[in-house]
Amino acid sequence: DGGITQSPKYLFRKEGQNVTLSCEQNLNHDAMYWYRQDPGQGLRLIYYSQIVNDFQKGDIAEGYSVSREKKESFPLTVTSAQKNPTAFYLCASSPGRGNTIYFGEGSWLTVV
Amino acid sequence: GIQVEQSPPDLILQEGANSTLRCNFSDSVNNLQWFHQNPWGQLINLFYIPSGTKQNGRLSATTVATERYSLLYISSSQTTDSGVYFCAVGYSGNTPLVFGKGTRLSVIA
Fold first, then answer.
1. A56-81 pLDDT per residue, tens
2. Distance in Å, alpha carbon of B6 to nearest chain A alpha carbon
3. What is the pLDDT of residues B43-83, one digit of tens each?
4. Residue B92's pLDDT is what?
5. Phi and psi torsions of B80, nearest 5°
6. Using the 8-state DSSP alphabet, how is residue B18 labeled?
7. B99 vs A31, A42, A105: nearest CB
8. Residue A107: alpha-carbon gap to chain centroid
9. What is the rounded distance in angstroms from the CA atom of residue A54 to the CA atom of residue A92?
């Protein structure tokens, strides 16, 4: 099936540990995005990539890192520098140029 | 940056009722999308509507770009319509979408 796959769905992390969230798409989309959602809030942009080997910071990039080595993959690493990482993380992709954006099912990260 | 405001923040409807959700934005945009987030967190595209009017079943949307607002209409609401409705806007090119805080809709039987 075509779509965007995020894993894991649920993740628990101890304070001080880095964790990587996976995002894979088979839609042949050029652009990929990571958003963060806190309870009762809208989505805030962490990082985005419009082309392989290039990415830009969003509004809340501090404490996060990404890579875009392949068109279909855009993993997000939540580092220990992120002060409040507990949240719902959503990956998305689009063909680019103002087209419709499509989301994965999300990953719930809890710091314990 | 661009600001997106949605109203009302919360809405409770009896099954079968109609509703109108509003999205105001602070600048000219050429990308506007409406999404529905179900109780499990999945975001589903409803409309890509930078201008004009579109309809899909019981849902329709209108964007008046010159006045910087968009409306989402839900008719004959059903319990499965419950969730959060987001409006998101963007400028030209590949600039990422900016999301409003959403309208939380609860439809009760």
1. 999 999 999 999 999 999 999 999 88
2. 10
3. 999 999 999 999 999 999 999 999 999 999 999 999 999 99
4. 66
5. -70, -10
6. -
7. A42
8. 9
9. 16
The pairing of beta strand A102-103 with beta strand A107-111: unpaired
Residues 6+ apart with CB under 8 A from A31: A48, A49, A50, A51, A93, A94, A95, A96, B94
User: Contact at 8 Å (CB) between B2 and B96?
Assistant: no
Closest CA to A110 of A94, A89, A91: A89
What are the tokens at A16?
A: 């001080």
C-alpha A44/C-alpha A27 separation (Å) is 23
Chain B residues inside the 8 Å CB shell of A102: 45
For residue B108, give the amino acid letter: I
Give the other-Cβ count within 10 Å of A4's Cβ.
Answer: 21
> Going edge to edge, which strands form the sheet with B4-7?
B4-7, B19-25, B69-74, B59-64, B52-56
Contacts of A15 (CB under 8 A, 6+ apart): A80, A111, A112
pLDDT digits (tens, 9 = 90+) for B10-36: 999 999 999 999 999 999 888 999 999
Portion 33-92 of A in contact with B at CB < 8 A = 33, 35, 41-45, 48, 50, 58-59, 88, 90, 92
Nearest by Cα to A40 from B1, B81, B104: B104
